[in-house]
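Weekly puzzle thread! Below is a chain. First person to post its structure in token form gets bragging rights.
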Amino acid sequence: MTIRFNALVLLSNPLGLDMEQTAQEMFLRHPALGPVEYSGDEMTGTLTVDGATLSVAAVNGVYPESEFRPPLKLTTRTGNTPVSPKHNAYILISYEGEGEGLEWAKAYAALVTLAAATFAQNPGVTGVFWPASYGLWSREQVTEAAEEIMTGQSPIDSWISFAQIAPNNVGRDDVLGVVTFGLKPFLGREIELAPEPISVQKALTSVYGAIWLMLDDGKVFTDGSRVSGPGIGGSYTIRDVEFWLRRGTPAYVLVGPDAVVDAETLLPEGVEAEDISSTDEDGSGSRLGRLFRFR
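Winning reply:
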């Protein structure tokens, strides 16, 4: 399986690379990594840790504005103020290689994050962009993510983003669900929490808890199984489907006992599969575009 992770360190002005200094700084900040080898010049280079090589490129230009816009409006679990994507240049840090399983993916994502945190200490950095989740981090946030990694934890709030969904046919604001962006590179699936009567914070906490179980606790979700616990805040049936709300996006669908969809059919009560067989889709690419709206 090919694993790919990218991070962009956004700059107010162009900055030439100093690969030797960066490698030294990365090791000094995180000595547990061991030696950091380097190569390159002011425009391109590499950083290598334990045989894994990152590609680095300085780009004197603006990353396409459209790439910063997620298909859905994101919501934050932590209350952090969104970072502006304004920039005039950027440093692109990339990893692409072969690996099997979650641990490989986490290791390479961690390495890209640690390198991004090191480059982010340079003057003129306006933020760090994680394209897989449309995540925009401040210098402080990416530094915190690096610190989490070195304690053996996945920086879930940095690697994964969240968006709210709600059913069209229930006239209540407290009935909502959540979908993720950024989990697929790790597990081959995103999470989609089926709408239910729940607060935004509890919904986000439930999805965060499910992600933690898979990324850091080794839990394996299987179709039809149930997951529960204090970190999730409820009991959910897991459906493993090739897509549900987002066409072409495999998902673990979490269905609670009060969800507005049936755990077996994943459809609202009284709705049959043929009722949504139309190929018409809303702007979000939703399979159930006439039944759900994306906030």
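Puzzle host: Confirmed. Bonus trivia for everyone else. The chain has two domains: 2-153, 161-294.
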